[in-house]
Structure formats: structure tokens, C-alpha cells
Write a structure and sequence with these properties.
Radius of gyration: 20 Å
Number of domains: 1
Protein name: Outer membrane lipoprotein-sorting protein
Number of strands: 11
Largest sheet: 11 strands, antiparallel
Order of helices and strands: HHEEEEEEHEEEEE
InterPro entries: LolA/LolB/LppX
Strand content: 35-45%
Signal peptide: 1-24
Structural class: alpha+beta
Keywords: Signal
Strand order of the largest sheet: 6-5-4-3-2-1-11-10-9-8-7
Number of helices: 3
Organism: Hydrogenobacter thermophilus (strain DSM 6534 / IAM 12695 / TK-6)
Shape: globular
Helix content: 10-25%
CATH topology: outer membrane lipoprotein receptor (LolB), chain A
CATH superfamily: Lipoprotein localisation LolA/LolB/LppX
Distance between the termini: 75 Å
Oligomer: single chain
């Protein structure tokens, strides 16, 4: 009887340890999912500066953004093979298409984000980079994991970001919310991810402007 009870205790502790390890760093699990499982996805992005857009991504790096607010009708497509951003500024003028470099200020966000670095995996890897030079707090919030990563001693990524907060959906590990902060603790950017579609197999023709 004593041996059985001891075995049960050890098994319980082992399961508890495994559960803790799995929960302890959902950021790593999310990165692994995006690297190995997610070939395409789409979502509506709502940014605190008023920008609203439908975002599409497909490996190995195709990106499409359909602006909803404030410049409704503008479409941008990034082609990783050509390393070019194609812009259709007016929905009514389909033949008017601009070809620009991804580092052109015209196609960068108000915070300086580039289209070729706009995918979710790049975001998660940037958060992971900050974690490597700081500390991470993780909380189980029911259907989501809350992650708070802070750089040690003012360490920053992308020059100014010293803190990230994320909400990862517990099932898909897809971000539902992301925010970044500077050294003074001021909010840099806040993003909400809505209407998320994963591995839907949409045609890559959507990454060609016609």
C-alpha cells in the first residue's frame, strides 16, 4: 500500500511538473506553432492610432493588407520573391499600381513597421528576443495566456521597446492582443487581432494585384 501511494505521489508530481513546463512558456509553444504548423492566416487588425485593416499572410512571406480605416480602398501587397511592395491607392483605379521598396516611408506604418516584417512570427520572435535579455511573467486567464516581458536594465528591441504585453489564445496560441512600451513606460502601440482565420488555404492569387 505504501509503495502504491508513493508511486501515485511521484506520478502526480511528474504530471504537475510537465503541466508547469507546458504553461511556463507559451511564447515558445506559439513560436513553434507558427514555424511548423501555420502556413497561412488572416485577421482584422485594429491599432490604437485608428488604423483598421484586413491582413493576409502565406508562407514563405507573402503579405496583403486591405485598409478599412482611415484610407478605405487602399491595398498593399508584399512579394518576397521580388522584395517589393505593390500599392493600389484607389480601388476604383485598378490599373494604377505603385511598385516600392519595403523600406520606403510611404509603405511603413506610423511606428516604422515594414511590410516584410509585419507577420505574427516576427512579432513573437521580437518578444522572445526581449525575453532573452529580461524577464517574463505568464498568467493563465481562462481562454488566454497573458504574457508580460520586460527588458533588464532598460534593454530595448527595435531601438525603443522595453516591454511587451500579449494575450495568446490558449487553443491556437494566436495573439489576440499585443502592446509595446518604451523606457518611460509609455504605450507605443496597441493592437487587437479579430476575426482570425488559420490555414484556410486561400489562393495565393490574392497576393497579385490586377
Amino acid at each position: 500500500m505504501g509503495n502504491n501511494r508513493g508511486c501515485q505521489v511521484r506520478c502526480f508530481l511528474l504530471l504537475l511538473f510537465i503541466s508547469y513546463i507546458s504553461f511556463a512558456n507559451p511564447l515558445d509553444d506559439a513560436i513553434q506553432k507558427f514555424e511548423k504548423e501555420y502556413r497561412s492566416y488572416s485577421y482584422v487588425m485594429k491599432v490604437n492610432d485608428g488604423m483598421v485593416l484586413r491582413y493576409y499572410y502565406a508562407t514563405p512571406g507573402y503579405v496583403r493588407m486591405d485598409i478599412i480605416e482611415p484610407y478605405k480602398g487602399v491595398t498593399l501587397v508584399y512579394d518576397p520573391n521580388m522584395d517589393k511592395v505593390f500599392v493600389r491607392p484607389f480601388k476604383s483605379m485598378k490599373n494604377l499600381i505603385l511598385e516600392l521598396s519595403p523600406d520606403n516611408p510611404i509603405v511603413k506604418s506610423s511606428k516604422g513597421h515594414r511590410m516584410d516584417e509585419s507577420d505574427v512570427l516576427t512579432l513573437l520572435r521580437t518578444v522572445k528576443e526581449l525575453e532573452g535579455n529580461g524577464k517574463m511573467l505568464t498568467e493563465d486567464r481562462g481562454s488566454s495566456y497573458y504574457i508580460d516581458v520586460r527588458g533588464r536594465g532598460g534593454v530595448a528591441v527595435r531601438k525603443v521597446i522595453t516591454r511587451f504585453t500579449l494575450l495568446l489564445d490558449k487553443e491556437s496560441l494566436f495573439p489576440r492582443y499585443a502592446a509595446s512600451y518604451n523606457r518611460e513606460g509609455q504605450l507605443i502601440e496597441e493592437v487587437f487581432f479579430e476575426d482570425i482565420l488559420i490555414n484556410t488555404g486561400f489562393s495565393k492569387d490574392i497576393f497579385i494585384l490586377r
